[in-house]
Design a protein that fits this description.
Largest sheet: 5 strands, antiparallel
Shape: globular
Distance between the termini: 51 Å
Strand content: 15-25%
Radius of gyration: 19 Å
Helix content: 40-55%
Number of helices: 10
Structural class: alpha+beta
Strand order of the largest sheet: 2-1-5-4-3
Number of strands: 5
């Protein structure tokens, strides 16, 4: 399957396949096959390409990682993501159904959806990077199935002693804070018993 997210990252940086391949020390034909999804890069090649295009190399192996996350987080209300120093997504798992994980990579929150919730999320991420410490905040997002409230934990990512970006874990707490799900379940139980 074609890696559209990778093609978009390359185009955003105004680079050709040849340029990315040269900067990654690989053959252009091999890089073209990586973009087309015909071949997967080795871990060292994935790291070089990710370095050139500024994303987390785990994005190449997301299908394998997604399998592990699906087992651990099946049907959970949790979204996990990484972002770089420019607040652009470098990896995401389990985004809301309004969005496609592959099209989010390489974009900031307001490039994905510009609203009050995403502005607050970007401010949280900025603060995590500025303070270089973990922070937590509750943010409401307008989505197609109504406003959702997320408890968001953000933390810095450090590699080899240098700040490289951050990570967020967002948990949908709408039903806890509004009692909506509990009310719906009570209503369903009453209907079943009558």
């Amino acid at each position: 399957m074609k890696r559209e997210w990778l093609i978009n990252l390359r185009k955003d940086k105004n680079l050709t396949q040849q340029q990315v391949a040269a900067l990654s020390f690989i053959d252009r034909g091999f890089y073209a096959q990586i973009e087309k999804g015909i071949r997967d890069p080795s871990i060292p090649v994935a790291k070089k390409v990710a370095e050139v295009l500024s994303f987390n190399p785990a994005a190449f192996f997301s299908s394998q990682l997604d399998g592990l996350f699906h087992v651990a987080l099946a049907d959970s209300p949790i979204i996990v993501a990484h972002f770089d120093l420019k607040l652009k997504y470098t990896w995401i798992f389990n985004s809301h159904s309004d969005f496609n994980d592959d099209t989010i990579i390489g974009k900031t929150d307001i490039e994905v959806a510009n609203n009050e919730g995403t502005l607050q999320l970007m401010n949280l991420k900025k603060e995590v990077l500025q303070k270089n410490e973990a922070l937590r905040k509750t943010i409401t997002f307008p989505v197609s199935d109504g406003p959702l409230i997320y408890d968001i934990y953000g933390a810095p990512l450090v590699e080899n002693g240098s700040l490289t970006g951050g990570t967020t874990v967002a948990t949908d707490v709408t039903h806890i804070l509004t009692g909506k799900e509990a009310l719906d379940k009570d209503t369903m139980v009453k209907k079943e018993t009558t």
